[in-house]
UniProtKB/TrEMBL annotation:
It comes from the Bacteria. Residues 9-300 form the Carbohydrate kinase PfkB domain. Keywords: Kinase, Transferase. PANTHER family: PFKB DOMAIN PROTEIN, SUGAR KINASE. InterPro entries: Carboh/pur_kinase_PfkB_CS, PfkB_dom, Ribo/fructo_kinase, Ribokinase-like. This is Sugar kinase. One of its GO terms (molecular function) is kinase activity. Belongs to the carbohydrate kinase PfkB family. The keyword Ribonucleoprotein does not apply. GO terms for biological process: phosphate-containing compound metabolic process.
Length: 314
């Protein structure tokens, strides 16, 4: 059974509470640093789903695992963004939390301190073949590869999608975690995906190359379509061992780069499902990424708003 073009997007990934601390200049070690602090919903998988819905995809579903402490809150937040939450509630582990340190004076670059909590306890028991009913595309967050239980779920999901002819995309998620996992092991785990969406740093880490275009080309020998995000330098599209398109970024004044890659991925997948080619979809991804960096937090506006001007700094 192959899902038709009008089918849903199913995202499987992490649902996290972000604590975003925006400071200006270096952290003052051993004493106080003034910051603006917000507690926001996040998680790469959840962010991708929300940006896909914001970009016009009518049926977006998210499978994730959260603690009982914040299950209702996260379900409400996802629904407010037009995403159907399919959340497993963990009675033992709390919802994951990420501290996002954002230097407002250095291009809004961010550093994460991550406690994945319940999100990495997602496992085969949370998966069902019925989750693929009506699904036209499956997207997997790379964070799923960083625990044994969620890797087992990935194997089941890939097998189910392959049996139904559902294409699968994956974003590597974290250069830090990739270093621990190892590039060879990562590539062996993702050999069955159709689209890989790494950042330039992740692509270079996975290939050992220092040039993002060379890394994109090499990765496209393993995966049919590779789209490398490059922040202010746009994106690269590669197939069959060669870069076939260089997509420019949309200019923006950055306030917080948290979730910019997730925004790109969500908009890119929504465009693919609407019938766009890879280059056109990457252009939509770049536009969403520009909107994301102009906002604080990893999510788009909620409540059905579909248009927003790229903002200016505070």
């Amino acid at each position: 059974m192959t899902a038709g073009p009008g089918g849903a997007l199913l995202v499987v990934g992490d649902v996290i509470t972000d604590v975003v601390a925006r400071h200006r200049g270096p952290l003052a070690v051993g004493t106080d640093t003034a910051a603006s602090i917000l507690r926001l919903p996040g998680g790469a998988g959840a962010n991708v789903a929300c940006w896909a819905a914001y970009s016009g995809r009518g049926d977006v579903r998210l499978l994730g695992r959260v603690g009982a402490d914040e299950a209702r809150r996260h379900a409400r937040e996802l629904e407010a963004h037009g995403v159907r939450p399919l959340l497993a509630v963990d009675a033992e582990a709390p919802t994951g939390t990420v501290i996002c340190l954002v230097d407002a004076g250095a291009g809004a670059e961010r550093t994460f301190l991550a406690d994945s909590g319940a999100s990495l306890r997602l496992g085969p028991g949370d998966w069902s073949e019925a989750l693929l009913d009506g699904v036209a595309r499956l997207h997997l967050s790379g964070y799923l590869l960083f625990s044994a239980s969620s890797r087992a779920l990935v194997a089941d999901a890939l097998a189910g999608a392959h049996a139904r002819g559902v294409p699968v995309s994956l974003d590597p998620a974290s250069a830090g975690f990739l270093t621990e996992l190892g590039s060879d092991r990562f590539l062996s785990l993702v050999g069955a995906v159709d689209v890989l969406l790494p950042s330039d740093g992740e692509a270079c880490l996975l290939t050992g190359r220092s040039d993002a275009a060379e890394a994109a080309a090499e990765l496209s020998r393993h995966v049919p379509l590779v789209v490398v995000t490059r922040g202010a330098q746009g994106a690269l599209v590669a197939r069959s061992g060669a870069v076939c398109a260089r997509v420019p970024a949309v200019p923006a004044v950055a306030r917080d780069s948290t979730g910019a890659g997730d925004a790109f991925t969500g908009a890119f997948l929504a465009a693919l499902l609407a019938g766009a080619g890879a280059e056109e979809a990457a252009a939509e991804g770049c536009r969403a990424g520009a909107l994301a960096v102009a906002r604080v937090g990893g999510r788009p506006p909620a409540g059905g708003e579909r248009r927003e001007t790229v903002g200016t700094a505070e």
